[in-house]
């Protein structure tokens, strides 16, 4: 992930947007695709063994294969009957919540199985490719299942003494049976920020590992003892050499690849300040005008065959939502 930063946690003194800086403030136009909510997480049921067993008979089961792929049909993830897998919840299933109709829904690793209707068309996709076509319910279930199962895959041994751990609380923690130490799903928070001049120009950057013309926002992982705002300032300075001000929160989105949480911001930068790429992660950065960004958005995303100078992230990323929200802000 590319990142950026500056001289202080707040990015210096806050500027006065009353000086004709009418486009400085904007907000997200839509909820990021992977932040949508369609099911009740029902966290109070995670430790209720009796409720879990009682709800299993008509519960639904989401299968996720080893490549984090799921089966989808008609824009929805395919859910099977849990009772066909086992007579009761086992140590490999994770509780995802309750459906709108009250049925429990669980997730687990396993081979993907087709829809019950043999005539229904289906396809195998991962969250990156299917996120844009999922409904709210499917987006939430698959994002949650992917994040939890990825964590379980890498947390089978205790970080304290290396002892094997077991799933606990319906998959929402792991416990060391030797000393009772309990561990919870790990998240790696990262900031992502659109830097603009307060008017009609914004900075987009290209990582060294990306193909030519593919640009996005500055992003980076939060360090120990650091605030989100402080991370924005530091990462921007490290990645492209700009000192930013007016760091403003926009929204967040889970990013279970494998276990991140993307926290979105925008900030003000000075177009007169020169770019400086100090850590080698960014190949190039440039100021783009609002009309240029709008034209690139109209061309699609970075899978497009457009000859445009600028190609942008796909809709599943919060980067896309932030860029669109700035480009079409009043």
Automatic annotation (TrEMBL):
GO biological process assignments: NAD+ catabolic process; NADP+ catabolic process
Cofactor(s), by name: Zn(2+); Mg(2+)
Gene3D superfamilies for the chain: 3.90.79.20, Nucleoside Triphosphate Pyrophosphohydrolase
GO cellular component: cytosol
MF GO annotations: metal ion binding; NADH pyrophosphatase activity; RNA NAD-cap (NMN-forming) hydrolase activity
Reaction equations catalysed: a 5'-end NAD(+)-phospho-ribonucleoside in mRNA + H2O = a 5'-end phospho-adenosine-phospho-ribonucleoside in mRNA + beta-nicotinamide D-ribonucleotide + 2 H(+)
Main EC class the enzyme belongs to: hydrolase
Domain annotation Nudix hydrolase: ranges: 185-310
Keyword terms: Hydrolase, Magnesium, Manganese, Metal-binding, NAD
Assigned protein family: Belongs to the Nudix hydrolase family. NudC subfamily.
NCBIfam families in the cross-refs: PRK00241.1 (NF001299)
This protein's name: NAD(+) diphosphatase
């Amino acid at each position: 992930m590319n990142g950026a930063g500056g001289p202080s946690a707040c990015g210096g003194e806050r500027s006065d947007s009353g000086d004709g800086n009418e486009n400085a403030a904007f907000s997200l136009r839509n909820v990021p695709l992977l932040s949508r909510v369609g099911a009740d997480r029902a966290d109070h049921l995670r430790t209720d063994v009796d409720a879990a067993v009682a709800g299993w008979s008509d519960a639904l089961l989401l299968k996720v294969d080893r490549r984090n792929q799921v089966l989808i049909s008609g824009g929805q993830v395919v859910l099977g009957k849990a009772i066909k897998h086992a007579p009761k919840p086992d140590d490999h299933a994770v509780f995802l919540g309750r459906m709108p109709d009250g049925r429990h829904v669980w997730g687990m690793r396993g081979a993907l199985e087709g829809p019950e209707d043999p005539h229904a068309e289906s396809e195998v996709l991962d969250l990156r490719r299917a996120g844009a076509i999922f409904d709210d319910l499917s987006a939430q279930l698959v994002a949650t299942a992917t994040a939890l199962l990825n964590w379980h895959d890498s947390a089978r041994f205790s970080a304290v003494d290396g002892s094997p751990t077991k799933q606990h609380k319906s998959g929402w923690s792991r416990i060391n049976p030797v000393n009772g130490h309990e561990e919870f799903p790990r998240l790696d928070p990262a900031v992502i920020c659109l830097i603009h001049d307060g008017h009609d120009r914004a900075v987009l950057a290209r990582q060294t590992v990306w193909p030519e013309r593919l640009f996005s926002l500055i992003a980076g992982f939060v360090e120990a003892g650091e605030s989100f705002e402080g991370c924005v300032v530091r990462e921007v300075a490290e990645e492209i050499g700009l000192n930013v001000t007016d760091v403003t929160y926009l929204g967040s989105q889970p990013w279970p690849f494998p276990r991140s949480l993307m926290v979105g911001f925008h900030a003000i930068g000075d177009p007169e300040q020169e770019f400086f790429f100090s850590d080698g992660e960014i190949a190039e950065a440039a100021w783009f005008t609002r009309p240029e960004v709008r034209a690139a958005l109209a061309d699609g995303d970075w899978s497009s065959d457009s000859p445009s100078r600028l190609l942008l992230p796909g809709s599943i990323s919060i980067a896309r939502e932030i860029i669109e929200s700035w480009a079409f802000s009043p």
